[in-house]
Amino acid sequence: MTEIPLSVPYVDVVVVGAGFTGLYALHKFRDEMKMSVRVFEAGGDVGGTWYWNRYPGCRCDVESIFYSYSFDEALQQEWSWSEKYASQPEILRYLNHVADRFDLRKGITFDTRVTALHWDDQESLWTVRTDDGNSLRCRYVISGVGTLSVAKKPEFGGIENFQGEVLFTGNWPHETVDFSGQRVAVIGTGASASQAIPLIAEEAAELLVFQRTPNFATPLANAPIDAEQMRKIKEDYPSLREAARKGFIGVPYDQWLPSALAVDPDERRRVYDDRYAAGGFRLFVDSFQDILYNYDANETLAEYLRERIYERVKDPDTAERLVPKGYAYGTKRPLLETDYFETFNRENVRLIDVSEESIDEITATGVRVGEHTYEVDVIVLATGFDAMTGPILAMDLRGRNGIRLADKWADGPRTHLGLMVNQFPNLFMITGPQSPSVLQNMPMGIEDHVDFACDAINYLHSRDLNIIEPTEQAESMWLALVNAIADLTLMPQSKSWYVGANIPGKPRACFLYLGGAPTYRQTCAEAVAGGYTGFYLSKAQAFDSKAVVGEAV
Ligand code: NAP
């Protein structure tokens, strides 16, 4: 291990990222736990996902009143949401408000990326290196790097040769992009593309949508929230939050019926019509429980959704190509859309099917597929992310004896509770791989995980300890459990980013705990109640932070 000079300053906690996680963690550790904290953020301001993803139409498909912090009643009461599903600018305004309200900015170093995190066996401290060449030591690390923050490298090359503009949905310019009069290509038809396509189509002279796999998509059913509705919501917040905590994905849906196969076709149709019209994730987790477990049950819903596409898209050939086939609904991220299918009825929009003949390259003038080059002025890459593990592994992360996390995870992630890793002490991965993560209302999952970290550190300190690390056995048992639950579902059968299938060469594994948020929370609570079962708790040799030369941060 490289010797770290004493001149490297020390803080108790380093937080990586200033999104939903980083802001809450900073407030919690600094203001409640009275610990010294430094947050590093690669972006120029707070917001994380909502700072980078500024593409037209970007909004959250979990209801605003749940996709928000619950930790502070006054914050809840003073903030009013204008829409059922908040747009990216509104969520970013909210996070800026939170940063100002809790005076968080002074604890954040912006435009600074954490490049390396190395555990020092002698001192039992982490050394954090940043891309400005600086280092910092700390006892605890909170990783708030996000789950969808490292872009997937497209399989095709030549982007650098394109003479027009190339835009990434996940790193969109801060200035308004004017598509009027432009010929635009959107590559990808996932959640990001499905939000951007209808709006780009309204402006562009011509829009070509390159689709490799059609997705199941259902209406978002967004609507404004008026003052009276918001007043009522604020009155009901305690019970709404309580109900949300009981929901499988952290939203209070409560009309889940046991089996799509146990009811007659009329009743099934009634349920599907009702949930389709209600919008959001109601079909996914509030129709029939067995659609995620039983292929025949799933097929009843898949067929219902195919019919809706045939109804909404006028040209039968285009409709046929937009209809998902060969995989189960919900095993790729279901899209929640507004006018997505109707967009393909526009004269200026064309669907280019690249399922059989793939995109070969980007040329100086457009997108080449086989012999044909589609000439365009702007290319929008909505090709997705190296999800779940990509953002953590983007840092050079080394634990005990210099072991690299990338090596440890060569066959897929190994964690305990999707939160901590054996041989990587005191590193808390908020909404990490093998936790409910993206299949849970994220701010709720984030609050739970940050609270877990705070409680664990309080527990350690109350016993004059300062190291927590899961056992290898607990990790193996968690992996077995995550896989066993996944195998009960249809999820592993599809080529989705949930199982690492969107990145060539990425290990195929289930990256999510699929047992639902309440069961997960109970499992964590049981570990805590048992005195942190599955974890080693220990004490590092004395470290005198006051002896460190350098500014307290
Ligand atoms: P994505 O779901 O991974 O979609 C990427 C798209 O690009 C897919 O259609 C994929 O096709 C296509 N693609 C990738 N490589 C390609 C290639 N070489 N040639 C042709 N097509 C290619 O990424 P995303 O749309 O950015 O969404 C990622 C996740 O972010 C979502 O699943 C969701 O969890 C989150 N998100 C959430 C919201 C929200 O409302 N809360 C909004 C946007 C995004 P294949 O399917 O064939 O791989």
Provide an overview of this structure:
The C terminus is likely disordered. 32% of the residues lie in helices and 16% in strands. Strands 1, 2, 3, 4, 5, 6, 17 and 18 form an eight-stranded mixed sheet that branches. A five-stranded parallel sheet has the order 7-16-8-9-12, with helices on one face. Strands 13-14-15 form a three-stranded antiparallel sheet, with no helix packed on it. It contains 16 helices and 20 strands. Among the domains are: 246 residues, FAD/NAD(P)-binding domain (3-Layer(bba) Sandwich); 115 residues, 3-Layer(bba) Sandwich (FAD/NAD(P)-binding domain). Helix 1 packs parallel to helix 14 and helix 14 packs parallel to helix 16. The two termini are 25 Å apart. It has 553 residues and is of the alpha/beta class. The protein is globular, with a radius of gyration of 24 Å. The site of NADP nicotinamide-adenine-dinucleotide phosphate (NAP) has 30 residues, from helix 5.
